[in-house]
Amino acid sequence: PKIYTWFPVEFEGYDPEWYHNFEMIDKAFTFTQFAVDQAAICLRKLFTDEEEAVKQVAKLTVLPRGINHAFAPIDEPVNALRERMTGGSIFLNDSFVFLNAYPNTLTSRLDVTMEAFAIFAKDKPNVRLWLHTNGDGHINIFDLAERLNIGDKLGVHTSGKDFPDEPDEEMNLLYNACDA
Q1: Sign of CA dihedral 30, 36, 40, 42
Q2: How far apart, in Å, do the first and last CA atoms of the chain sit?
Q3: Given the DSSP bridges, would you call strands 4-6 and 27-30 parallel, antiparallel or unpaired?
Q4: How far is residue 127's CA from residue 85's CA, in Å, rounded to a whole number?
Q5: Which of 48, 49, 50, 59 is nearest to 23 (CA)?
Q6: What angle do CA 116, 120, 126 make, to 5 degrees?
Q7: CB 105 within 8 A of CB 99
Q8: Integer CA distances (angstroms), 77 to 20, 41, 63, 173, in order
Q9: Which of 33, 102, 177, 180 is the residue whose CA sits 20 to 30 A from 59?
Q10: What proportions of the chain, in percent to the nearest 5, are helix, strand and coil?
């Protein structure tokens, strides 16, 4: 039988030894070209014979993320959804809310999201950025928010885990409570 695998790659600099049984795999799928490139770097370090390295790297394929059908509109006033999402806070009410629900990693580029939001939000008092992420990670979110002068427009939710791994119902609430 053929062996197919899927794996995420979120960072640069993975240990090539993680791929030490890669020759057993017939095809490997990951979400992005970045992931393929990072895995290829490791495989070229692990398989020092150029012909073998080329053979192993050729097994890597981008398989874009699919659609999750668990998400649907919630028939409830948006401010009520926002208060549920924030545990009763009215911070987001009557604002235009941007959501970014990604881990704080190099590839997620939360810094770019925050920089773009800072440009957009200038002179707009009723816009907010809601980050659903892990607090510690690639960038210090709160320091960057202060440097960009958006600290008063930023909300951050962390699940207390390495990655915000919320049930579909909670993520659906987030998507419904935010505007973009």
Answers
A1: negative
A2: 45
A3: parallel
A4: 17
A5: 59
A6: 125
A7: no
A8: 53, 49, 37, 12
A9: 102
A10: 40, 15, 50
Residue with the two structure tokens 């200038």: 122
**pLDDT per residue rounded down to tens, the chain (180 residues):** 889 988 888 778 888 888 889 999 999 998 888 889 999 999 999 999 999 999 999 999 988 766 566 778 888 898 898 888 888 887 888 899 999 988 888 888 899 999 999 999 999 999 999 998 876 778 899 999 999 999 999 988 876 555 556 777 888 888 888 898
Three-state secondary-structure class, residue 24: helix
d(CA 91, CA 155): 8
Phi-psi region of 123 (alpha: psi -120 to 50; beta: other; left: phi over 0): left
**Pairing mode, if any, of strands 96-100 and 154-157?**
unpaired
Match 């999750």 to its residue by tokens.
68
One-letter amino acid identity for 100? N
The residue written with tokens 């907010």 in the block is 128
Q: Which two tokens stand for residue 126?
A: 């009723």
Q: Which amino acid is at 117?
A: F
Find out whether 10 and 138 touch, Cβ atoms under 8 Å. Answer: no
